């Protein structure tokens, strides 16, 4: 259920009540760009093969969309990982989706082809992805979600890698760059790069803000 070594294709299917929306998302995923170095995304119908990722397109996080997530969670055998492309997505809707297992969310207005392909690839790898502004506003509410929903699935709402989390926890403990590099057997330059990755992913300006976000999310 993940993209394989050497850039093996990610298989995705699209589910929507609106044929026009389904066609648009299909076209985005099928498009390519010269600077796109990620594994290709192959769009199939659900009847053909069980996909790695199921992209569910809706106007909002309504009963229909939540029912699709429930069906995935309750199905027999390995289920595709969901990516939600939603027209209206506020804090309440985002939290409902996350609690139902919709751990990768994209607003339709922000759904460019490169972004959607990257979110689909991330979902295939088991990573959760949320819009940065939604992530920021939800962090004060998701300590319980992190413990009860994501942690049992081996995921984090912050979409940080184990290496990034290790660095962030050492920063929270007061370690400087030199100490972190020595303890984790990395160069200081590598640690600075990891810190930059963390702040970029969280949409914050410095390490202090990154630690505060992680504390509110229940990771530290």
UniProtKB/TrEMBL annotation:
Domain HTH luxR-type residue range list: 153-218
GO biological process per UniProt: regulation of DNA-templated transcription
Source domain of life: Bacteria
Pfam families: GerE
Gene Ontology MF term list: DNA binding
Listed PROSITE patterns: HTH_LUXR_2 (PS50043)
Keyword Lyase: no
Keywords annotated in UniProt: DNA-binding, Transcription, Transcription regulation
Keyword match Transcription: yes
InterPro entries on file: Sig_transdc_resp-reg_C-effctor, Tscrpt_reg_LuxR_C, WalR-like
Protein name: Helix-turn-helix transcriptional regulator
Native source species: Polymorphospora rubra
């Amino acid at each position: 259920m993940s993209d394989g070594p050497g850039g093996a294709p990610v298989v995705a299917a699209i589910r929507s009540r609106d044929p026009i929306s389904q066609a648009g998302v299909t076209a985005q995923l099928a498009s390519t760009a010269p600077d796109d170095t990620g594994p290709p995304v192959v769009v199939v119908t659900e009847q053909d093969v069980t996909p790695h990722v199921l992209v569910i397109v809706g106007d909002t996080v309504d009963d229909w969309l939540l029912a699709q997530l429930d069906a995935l969670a309750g199905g027999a055998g390995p289920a595709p990982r969901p990516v939600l492309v939603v027209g209206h997505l506020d804090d309440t809707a985002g939290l409902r989706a996350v609690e139902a297992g919709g751990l990768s969310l994209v607003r339709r207005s922000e759904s460019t082809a490169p972004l959607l392909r990257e979110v689909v690839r991330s979902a295939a790898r088991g990573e959760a992805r949320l819009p940065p502004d939604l992530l920021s506003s939800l962090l004060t509410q998701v300590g319980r979600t992190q413990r009860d929903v994501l942690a049992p699935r081996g995921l984090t709402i912050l979409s940080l890698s184990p290496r990034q989390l290790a660095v962030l926890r050492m920063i929270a403990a007061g370690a400087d760059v030199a100490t972190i590099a020595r303890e984790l057997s990395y160069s200081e330059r590598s640690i600075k790069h990891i810190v930059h990755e963390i702040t970029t992913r969280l949409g914050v300006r410095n390490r202090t803000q990154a630690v505060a976000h992680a504390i509110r999310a229940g990771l530290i």
